[in-house]
């Protein structure tokens, strides 16, 4: 249902230009006016090596000019260096991490059958919206973030709203990762230090890795992180049915898992659980910046299909097995569900995955501001003192905000639900539905083009907008009440020293 430009159009994200023309074109490309960003002399790349001429008999060799990062060549920072295979890995890692750790607990709240239905619905909706990211990037190569998309569609108000929601999502997710890392340290050390100290340690570990300027430089950690988090989750998934008793269950005498096929939650509890499942799929705000650093953005859709399919199968297996054998004693995060020994081992194995979550979200939150501040200037892609000063300031500033969030709201499940409902719905569902409707607006004006398929697309995206709006209101309400209740139950407080490795 997506609207793609013809192969010979001027919508490729990289153009080959005459050297003398490059500065003026780069300047024009920095504007987000919704029009094609290349001149009649531009070319569109079908892939990384093939170039189709766009109107000239011959084109002089010259530097590449990216629609986002400007001129590419000697003396510049080449951000466009990511292939589709690694893109698949990084898309999976932006999702598989904190999100999967909340699914068993959400299944307990909703019941297994409603939980599976909600998970599948979320997979379908976010799979479509993630796919739309790739289509929109091809149609509008000048966009780098959802804020740019907001400006195309709604002008300055849209840019501000989308910018705020996107950055808050990334920064607060970094804060959630800090909490999960502090939980890991508490579990491994048997609460060997104050939790507030472990949150500081998490921030200190994140900064040097997040400050690496290019996504490609995080490739080594992404592979380790993905293997680590999958291994730790699978360890817990296998250990629970084999070990016999979850860590939170009574260690002596009879115990009842209270396994529920259909749950009976309150409205607030149900909405918080649904928001937690949405969080497992709400890495979409990161997808457009990732696509912008691909060598060939046309391959992004292939990466989305692969990653979404693998993630959904993994979520279903983990959620069903862990909840089936742990029942009401499932922990949140789920790595704490097995016995004490398994919990310590699982957190030790999964720590690189938890760390990578904080690194990638902090990196992209900082780069988001970095590109907005320096876009259109030579400092964006040249190693000048201004370039590095602004870069490190952006990373450090985002890190400090995330640290304050993690310390002020040290409740993992409630914070995850709040992030997903407040900002995940807008950025993972609302934005992409509007983007699809924006791209078909001209076709819809022509009666002959109003096909059944087009009408189905319109109805489908309007339904997504309605569901997202309901989740925005209801999920926020449920998450706020969840944070309040968990605070009261645990005696938690900001900058707390209390052990958080045993919180449900």
Automatic annotation (TrEMBL):
Which parts of the sequence are annotated with region: Disordered?
1-48
Domain named Amino acid transporter transmembrane: residues: 83-467
Tell me the lineage of the source organism: Eukaryota, Fungi, Dikarya, Basidiomycota, Pucciniomycotina
- Residue spans crossing the bilayer: 109-128, 160-184, 190-213, 220-240, 273-291, 303-325, 345-365, 386-405, 411-431, 452-473
Task: Work out whether the entry's keyword set contains Membrane.
Answer: yes
Instruction: Output the superkingdom of the source species.
Output: Eukaryota
List the source organism.
Rhodotorula paludigena
**Locations listed in the record:** Membrane
InterPro entries for this protein: AA_transpt_TM
Question: Which named protein is this?
Answer: Amino acid transporter transmembrane domain-containing protein
Q: Which GO terms describe its molecular function?
A: L-amino acid transmembrane transporter activity
């Amino acid at each position: 249902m997506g609207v793609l430009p013809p192969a010979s159009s001027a919508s490729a994200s990289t153009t080959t230009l005459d050297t003398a023309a490059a500065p003026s074109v780069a300047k024009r490309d920095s504007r987000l006016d919704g029009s094609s960003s290349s001149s009649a002399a531009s070319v569109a790349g079908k892939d990384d090596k093939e170039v189709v001429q766009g109107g000239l008999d011959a084109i002089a060799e010259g530097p590449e000019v990216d629609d986002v990062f400007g001129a590419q060549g000697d003396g510049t920072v080449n951000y466009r260096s990511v292939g589709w295979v690694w893109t698949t890995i990084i898309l999976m890692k932006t999702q598989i991490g904190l999100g999967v750790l909340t699914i068993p607990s959400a299944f307990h709240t909703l019941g297994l059958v409603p939980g599976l239905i909600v998970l599948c619905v979320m997979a379908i909706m976010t799979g479509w919206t993630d796919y739309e990211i790739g289509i929109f990037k091809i149609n509008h190569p000048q966009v780098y973030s959802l804020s740019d998309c907001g400006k195309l569609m709604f002008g300055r108000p849209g840019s501000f709203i989308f910018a705020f929601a996107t950055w808050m999502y990334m920064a607060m997710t970094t804060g959630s990762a800090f909490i999960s890392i502090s939980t890991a340290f508490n579990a491994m050390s048997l609460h060997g230090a104050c939790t507030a100290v472990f949150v500081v340690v998490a921030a200190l570990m994140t900064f040097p890795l997040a400050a690496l300027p290019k996504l490609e430089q995080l490739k080594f950690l992404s592979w380790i992180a993905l293997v680590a988090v999958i291994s730790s989750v699978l360890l817990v998934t296998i250990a629970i049915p084999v070990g016999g008793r979850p860590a939170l269950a009574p260690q002596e005498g009879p115990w009842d898992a209270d396994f529920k096929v259909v749950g009976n939650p309150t409205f607030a509890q149900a909405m918080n659980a649904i928001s937690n499942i949405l969080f497992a799929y709400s890495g979409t705000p990161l997808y457009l910046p990732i696509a912008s650093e691909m060598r060939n953005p046309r391959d992004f859709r292939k990466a989305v299909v692969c990653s979404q399919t693998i993630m959904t199968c993994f979520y279903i297996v983990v959620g069903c097995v862990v909840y089936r054998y742990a029942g009401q004693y499932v922990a949140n995060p789920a790595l704490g569900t097995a016995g004490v020994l398994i919990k310590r081992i699982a957190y030790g194995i999964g720590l690189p995955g938890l760390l990578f979550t904080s690194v990638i979200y902090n990196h992209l939150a900082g780069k988001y501001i970095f590109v907005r501040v320096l876009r259109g200037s030579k400092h964006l892609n040249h190693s000048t003192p201004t370039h590095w000063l602004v870069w490190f300031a952006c990373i450090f500033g985002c890190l400090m905000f995330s640290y304050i969030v993690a310390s002020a709201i040290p409740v993992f499940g409630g914070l995850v639900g709040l992030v997903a409902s407040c900002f995940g719905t807008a950025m993972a569902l609302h934005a992409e539905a509007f983007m699809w409707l924006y791209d078909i607006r001209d076709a819809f004006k022509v009666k002959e083009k109003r096909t059944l398929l087009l009408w189905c697309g319109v109805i489908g995206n309007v339904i997504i907008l309605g569901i997202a709006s309901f989740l925005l209101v209801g999920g926020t309400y449920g998450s706020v009440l969840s944070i309040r209740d968990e605070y009261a139950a645990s005696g938690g407080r900001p900058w707390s020293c209390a052990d958080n490795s045993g919180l449900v």
